[in-house]
């Protein structure tokens, strides 16, 4: 009996592996909608007969996501606000003040487990982090498995439904942190945030406001909750304005082409940062010098 039980358990695991592998391939290669509640801003529409003849004979049909004319504009508005530098909390507050229906109100039949009728920070954050709004299909994003086809989330290789935000804007929204106002009420902005990496420990340099100007530093993983060890490398510092000038000098001004010296410093800094992001390059700084490095997209 124990032998039969072991064989039965193995067959169950094989069947589970085959089903998960098939679903993973359907999501990545075909962009097929595999069930679940449609995300806020979308609705389900008919996508034709089922490709499996047996399922088609039973009358089963495919479904796909399509923009919901009632809620899709609100999703696009959230991304625009995030790209403008607004915090997630302020976006949720404005949605509540405008009386925009939250997901549990817009689709109560599919959200019976939710009883709150207001936007929360978590709800907005989940929407802004959902890659489905770029038009690509996803599956198994919240996996807990560590082995097999269910160990990694699936993302379709091409667009499977109309997008509510471009891929460039979606990626940019993931990198945005709301600018905090300083004691004088003005927001401190760092044009090169996320673009400078440490040549010693390969960490990204932290944005650091020092003497009234933006600077960047790397403490090599050290925090105030730890004692500084003797082996820890010296903290790196670099001023944003000096780094921008050095980039222009080394590249002969070509990276800031079209931006004159008469323009405000912040405008020139933003132009240089945008050029680096568009070209897929980062700055590697080791304390004595810097170099440009191509971002590995593999």
UniProtKB/TrEMBL annotation:
A molecular function (GO) held by this record is: DNA binding
- Domain (Recombinase) spans 39-183
Q: Which residues form the signal peptide?
A: none
Taxonomically, the superkingdom here is: Bacteria
Protein name (database record): Site-specific recombinase
